[in-house]
Amino acid sequence: MQPRIIDLGSFTINGYGLMIGLAIPLCYWLVSREARRSGLKTLDENLIFLFFWLAGVCYLGAKLAFMIAYPDDLRTLYDAGGFGAVLREGFVFYGSLVLGIPVTWYAMRRYRVPFGRGIDTVSYVLPLGHAFGRLGCFLAGCCHGCRTDVGWAVTFPPETMGLPGAPLHPVQLYEAAGNLLIFVFLWWSVRPRYRFPGQVLLTYLLLYAVLRLVTETFRGDGNPVYVGGATHHQAGAPPTGLTQAQIISIIAIVVGAPLLWNRLRATAHRLG
Fold first, then answer.
1. Buried b or exposed e, range 82-114, using 16+ CB within 10 angstroms
2. Taking 80 as the threshold, does the pLDDT of residue 249 lie above it?
3. Crossing angle, helix 47-69 and helix 15-37, to 10 degrees?
4. Where would a tag sit more exposed on the chain, N or C end, judged by fewer CB atoms within 10 A?
5. Span of 61-75, 81-95, 99-113 with lowest mean pLDDT
6. Does the pLDDT of residue 271 top 70, yes or no?
7. What's the pLDDT tens digit per position in 20-37?
């Protein structure tokens, strides 16, 4: 693991930044390709502006969620590196979704893109971008797993974030692999059998909720426990109850699964 891929004094490229830098053009190309295939000319023509919207809003949402969920870590970041460290580090993925979806609706309305088809076209690549992000987390050592003695445990060097020197579950790689599988399923299974606007987004949210519900049990970075936690979550220990992310995942499953099932049944009847 290398938090810094290139370090030439004042010029530094971090592993996390490199992964995001690779993800953005790849996701942009795939969305543009799919927009043209789907006949969404206005989306393709305004995609660069939409990506700026998404990048800014997802950053803001993930940062605000971190500030709310991790006030102690926020203070630690500020004490260690000042305002710059707060801007660079500390994000919560679900925060980007909570803020990103309504703002994307507004942006697509502004550019006269049909929201259902437009959000689905973007949603195909969300798990792919997230997979690259988790690889960046792995390189940085953040969002790390709990202590373990399994044969594939990883030990982070001192210069990384998180818990250097302890054998940990590589939970970042678990989630990256899961997100890649979700992307493959959406692109090669859902995409050729597309039935209704919103199908891709709903399917993605459900599959990611299941994935996060599982991977959260291997996290050891102190995610806030909201339900059933008998003790304060210690770094390196698995959660003692249901975490914030697991609560959100359960809500997403309970709400989204019946909605997706009913829509798929309705379209099946209409097509049959």
1. eeeebeebbbbbbbbbebbbebbeebbeebebb
2. yes
3. 140
4. C
5. 81-95
6. no
7. 889 999 999 999 999 999
Q: What is the pLDDT of residue 10?
A: 60
Task: Quote the CA–CA distance of 270 and 240 in Å, as a whole number.
Answer: 47
**pTM score > 0.85 for this model?**
yes
Encoding tokens for residue 70?
Answer: 């991790």
Number of domains, the chain: 1
In a 13 Å sphere around the CA of 154, the CA atoms on its Cβ side amount to 21
What is the 8-class DSSP label of residue 143? S
Could you tell me the residue range of the domain that residue 57 belongs to? 4-271
CA distance 152 to 138: 14
Whether 66 contacts 74, CB under 8 Å? yes
Given the DSSP bridges, would you call strands 4-8 and 242-243 parallel, antiparallel or unpaired? unpaired
Contacts made by residues 160-164, CB under 8 angstroms, sequence distance 24+: 160/1, 160/3, 161/3, 161/89, 162/221, 163/220, 163/221, 163/235, 163/236
The alpha carbon dihedral of 141, 86, 52, 7 has a sign of negative
Report how far residue 138's alpha carbon sits from residue 160's, in angstroms, rounded to the nearest whole number. 9
Average pLDDT, the chain: 86
Expressed in angstroms, the distance from the first to the final Cα of the chain is 53
Roughly what angle, to the nearest 10 degrees, separates helices 126-140 and 171-185?
A: 170
Q: CB-based contacts of 89: which residues, under 8 Å, 6+ apart?
A: 77, 81, 142, 161
**Spacing of C-alpha 155 from chain mean position:** 24
Instruction: Count CA atoms within 13 Å of residue 48 on its CB side.
Output: 1
